[in-house]
Design brief:
By secondary structure, the protein is mainly α. The protein is built from 20 helices and no strands. The chain has one domain: MFS general substrate transporter like domains (Growth Hormone, Chain: A).
């Protein structure tokens, strides 16, 4: 069959989904460096501003709180569906970078917490729209694509911990400005090098009943319940694994002991969070063949087991603790992309962005509770056993996924 020159040139002009995913993943990595930037610099910030334990806790949770408010408003207004998600992503990067950079001029606890909350609210326009962009480029391999994207997110979240661990001489203000500059670069990439995919609607009309319509589907509700179990554990582990490791290395686990993160603890936190990229990509590579729900449930069972045995590895030799941290890091986030892919799969094509935003909003609201719970538990029982508090989440999440069966016919 003869192909005209015009048809050939049109085919060559179609962007490669893999190339689009690569650029989007880089943009996500850069944008999400803002999430844990202040957490990685927690010790010098607390020391400089003489923050109380309550103020320190709110500083840690402020990003989560801002993100919940941002995603809630976005979902109610259908913003990820009525505004082009690439533009929304870029706006979120720029606004978040401005709020994060303003931390260098903060004059006290109130302004620190408010600016971190504003950063979290801006990131509500980065994370869910990023997932919608990826979903738009992939259909049958959506689980794999979101696995790669969430892997980039985890490395971006871990990056400030790497900077904090390799050099204790980096001023915390420099760390904030670096994260903000990277986020702006991410926004530029997504509007200049990433296009709109063909598999989800780029924009839709405002629908006040969109949230109710999306979650009227039982499969979407079950996937969201699984996501809630996953989120009860995930960010509490990411936030407090540095304190746990620091206490373990220092031999201080008595109830009531304050354990700021040490460089060694920050290094363990980086290994835990960054290894999640391996888990996300590996889970995604097989999930589309054997079932996203099955892979997500397996990951939660492994990470729930890690919650149960973490205390027994307290004071273990450093190589053992490092190996455990990597295994836990791989498992704890391997389910995340698949749970989001399930929600995208079962949602109306024109409101995928709203569905993903509501899912993340509910999950991050729950993380505020678990993040606050762990230091309170540490005051009572010491850092050794605090992760037992997280164990019910992943096990209950895996139980919820038993009601889903998205496996291909060849493996059912």
């Amino acid at each position: 069959m003869k192909v005209s020159a015009g048809s050939a040139s049109s085919a060559l002009a179609v962007p490669s989904p893999k190339v689009q995913l690569a650029w989007l993943s880089l943009a996500m990595f850069l944008g999400m460096t803002m999430w844990f930037s202040a957490t990685a610099a927690n010790a010098p910030i607390v020391a400089e501003f003489h923050l109380t334990s309550a103020e320190t806790a709110w500083l840690t949770m402020a990003v989560q709180g801002g993100f919940v408010i941002g995603t809630l408003m976005s979902a109610i207004l259908n913003l990820p569906d009525i505004i082009n998600p690439r533009r929304l992503f870029a706006i979120g990067c720029v606004l978040g970078a401005a709020a994060n950079a303003a931390l260098v001029r903060a004059d006290g606890a109130v302004s620190l917490i408010a600016l971190r909350g504003a950063t979290g609210a801006a990131l509500a326009w980065v994370y869910p729209p990023g997932m919608k962009i990826a979903a738009g480029w992939f259909d049958t391999r959506r689980g794999a694509a979101l696995g790669v994207l969430i892997g980039a997110l985890t490395v971006g979240s871990a990056f400030p911990h790497l900077l904090a661990s390799v050099s204790t001489t980096i001023p915390w203000r420099t760390l904030m400005l670096c994260a903000s500059a990277l986020a702006v670069a991410g926004g530029i990439i997504v509007v200049t090098l990433v296009g709109d995919g063909p598999y989800v609607a780029v924009s839709a009309r405002f629908d006040p009943g969109a949230v109710a319509r999306v979650f009227a589907d039982r499969r979407t509700r079950l996937a969201t319940l699984g996501y809630l179990g996953h989120m009860w554990e995930l960010y509490a582990v990411w936030t407090w694994i540095a304190a746990f490791a620091s206490a373990s290395f220092a031999g201080s686990g008595a109830p009531g002991s304050a354990t700021p993160s040490s460089p060694a603890g920050s290094a363990v936190a980086f290994a835990t969070i960054a290894s999640g990229a391996i888990g996300s990509a590996a889970a995604g590579s097989v999930a589309d063949r054997i079932g996203k729900a099955r892979i997500a449930a397996w990951a939660m069972l492994v990470s729930g087991t890690c919650c149960a045995i973490a205390g027994f590895l307290y004071h273990a030799p450093a190589p053992v603790l490092w190996l455990f941290a990597v295994v836990w890091g791989v498992a704890v986030v391997a389910d995340s992309a698949q749970l989001s892919a399930l929600v995208a799969q079962y949602s109306p094509r024109d409101h995928v962005g709203t569905a993903l935003t509501v899912q993340t909003c509910a999950g991050f609201l729950l993380t505020m509770m678990s993040i606050r719970l762990l230091p309170v538990a540490a005051q009572a029982i010491g850092w050794q056993w605090v992760f037992i508090c997280l164990m019910p989440g992943p096990f209950l999440g895996a139980l919820a996924l038993r009601g889903l069966n998205d496996q291909p016919p060849t493996v059912r």
